[in-house]
Every structure is written in structure tokens, then in C-alpha cells.
Amino acid sequence: QNDMDKVVTCLAPVNIAAIKYWGKRDERLILPLNDSVSLTLDCDQMHSQTSVIAGPFIKEDGIWLNGQIMPIETNERLQKCFNLIRQLIVKRKGENCPEAKWKIRVCSENNFPTAAGLASSAAGYACLVYTLANAFDLLNEDLSSIARQGSGSACRSIYGGFVHWKAGIDDLGSDSIAVQIADDTHWPEMRIIILVVNDSQKKTSSTVGMQKSVETSELLKYRIQKCVPERTTQIIQAIKDKNFEQFAEITMKDSNQFHAVCLDTYPPCVYLNQVSHEIISFVHDYNEATGQIKVSYTFDAGPNAFLFILQNDLSSFMSELIKVFPTDQPISSYIRGIVSTQSDML
Ligand code: PMV
């Protein structure tokens, strides 16, 4: 007789930051230097899918990522997520509960390129933590703090809709958590277009890029002190008011400043390429021609563009876009959140 005879499977989408997280004040606990704000996409286009099975019948922990076994012993972040979930099980169910001793098997896959500046680690760690929590009935706990310790931006994918990751001030990170600004039904007209410019793995990982920026960029200090606090307040208000132009302008400015910080890093981290810059120009030209801010862009640590636009403007914009970027196949996504299912063990 097995104690857990269900396979719990969840899909977690990527989230795209409109105010970027860049720089840590604590590397081990993954505590950021600044607040960030993001939108969680739907699972239809880009997601991580994770299945978890646990029980006394499993001999040792194991994790498979994209079909390959991962060595947990040498992966500090994976280990941390497993340990934090186990600590939570003990806290909630007592030290002598059998589940605390169960070994866990995890199988995780991304349906899009990993480590290409497409927020794969955010979806991956959010999915891992959420699925583990689901398997052990811990969904009411603050999972964002655990996901954060897998990959910083993963704490935001725990929630659907519009999310604010508060940097916090506590040295132990108790107040560095993600909170939902508004759920996925709040602004149903919002669409995200993803233009995959290059899906090969980035040269400088965000972890290394951030460290270098913290060590060498003067602009990063200015950004954190003088720009991000005000922008965060303003964009949260713009989201609440569904003020697209305000939202879009802040998003573009923040993306540009983040990449300026990357260039101010020594040696510089160059994530955008020629096509990224052409997309930026195209968006500004389009907005100028319409006399309004109809569309905005943001870029993570890679050349791929994420465009925000309202549903009513989508088709006319798309018809212009494909004239200029004919070979790209734009992906259009909604704002949503995590999906979970359970199936019987085979
Ligand atoms: O969570 P990480 O370590 O992959 O860092 C993500 C950093 C950016 O994607 C560039 C910005 C963000 O806020 O998502």
C-alpha cells in the first residue's frame, strides 16, 4: 500500500518584469536590491511542467530536467528548495509525520528554450515549489520565499496576474516576498507578444551579470536609489487604474535603464542585438505615427522582445509588424497563472 498514489503535475508560466530586478544584497538568500513588478503569462505558449511523486516506496531523491537527470547534491538551489519544503512539512505536520522522511522524484520540462533570456528559471523554480507544495498540502503557505531561493524572479510566477516583489529590508529575507497587485481577470485586454530573436543560451547568466553590475556599475546605484522606488509606485497605480500609456512608458524606460546598467557594467554585459534595437525603433515609430503609446517593449537578459499591447490594437499592429519582421512568428499570450492537475499513478 503506497501512502501517496497520485502524481501531482503543475504548469507554471513565465513572468515578464515591467520593473526589472537586477542586483542582489544577499547572494545566498537571493535578496534583491530593488523592488520589481511583473506580469504572469498564460501557460498556453511558454511554461514549465513539473510532476512530483513522493512516498516511503521511493529510495532516493531524484530530479529530471528536460529528460536529463540532474545531480541534486551539487546543485545548491535545488537542494535548498527541497530542504525548505521539508522544513515546512515538519513545521505544519510535526517532526514525526511520515511525509517528512519521504523521498521525492521530480520530472520537469520546459516547452521553450532554457536559459535564453526567456525567463525559464522563473517558470521552472515556481513550478517545482508549487508542485511540491501541492503534493504535501502546503498551498496556503508563503511559497514565494521558497521559490525566490531557487531563482529570484521565480517568486513572482507563484502568483497569476500582476505581481509586486517587495525587496524588503530584513537581513533574513522574511519581508522579501511577492504579492499580487491584481489577479488575471483585472485587465483582460492586456496582451503580450513575444518575439524570439535568438533562442540560444545567453553568454552571461543573470546571476553573473548581476554580480558584475553590483560590483562595477555607478548607474545601478542611481537606479536603485532614485528611479525604481518612484517607478514602482507609479506603475502599480497605472495597473490599478488600467492606464495603458502610463504603464507602457514606465515599462520601456525601465527596460532601457536596465540595459544601460548592463552596458555601464565593466566589462559590459551586452544582451540586446541589432534586431532588438530595430524592434525598439519600430515600436517608437509606430507609437509616434498613431500619436499615442499603443505598444511598449521590454527585454530581459537576452535579445528577445516582450511587447505589451491592448487587444483592440493587436491586429492592426501585427499586420505592420510582420511587414518589417516577416520571418518571425510572434507568440501572443494572455495574463494568467499556474495550473495544477492530479492523476493516478500508473
Ligand atoms: O531570477 P533571475 O536570476 O533569472 O533574474 C532575472 C533578471 C531579469 O529577468 C533580467 C529581470 C527580472 O526582473 O525578471
From TrEMBL:
Residues 12-178 form the Diphosphomevalonate decarboxylase-like N-terminal domain. GO terms for cellular component: cytosol; ribosome. Pathway: Steroid biosynthesis; cholesterol biosynthesis. Its EC number is 4.1.1.33. It comes from the Eukaryota. One of its GO terms (biological process) is cholesterol biosynthetic process. GO terms for molecular function: ATP binding; diphosphomevalonate decarboxylase activity; kinase activity. Residues 192-346 form the Mvd1 C-terminal domain. Keywords: ATP-binding, Cholesterol biosynthesis, Cholesterol metabolism, Kinase, Lipid biosynthesis, Lipid metabolism, Lyase, Nucleotide-binding, Ribonucleoprotein, Ribosomal protein, Steroid biosynthesis, Steroid metabolism, Sterol biosynthesis, Sterol metabolism, Transferase. It catalyses: (R)-5-diphosphomevalonate + ATP = isopentenyl diphosphate + ADP + phosphate + CO2. Catalyzes the ATP dependent decarboxylation of (R)-5-diphosphomevalonate to form isopentenyl diphosphate (IPP). Functions in the mevalonate (MVA) pathway leading to isopentenyl diphosphate (IPP), a key precursor for the biosynthesis of isoprenoids and sterol synthesis. Belongs to the diphosphomevalonate decarboxylase family. This is Diphosphomevalonate decarboxylase. The chain holds residues 35 to 380 of 422 of the full protein.
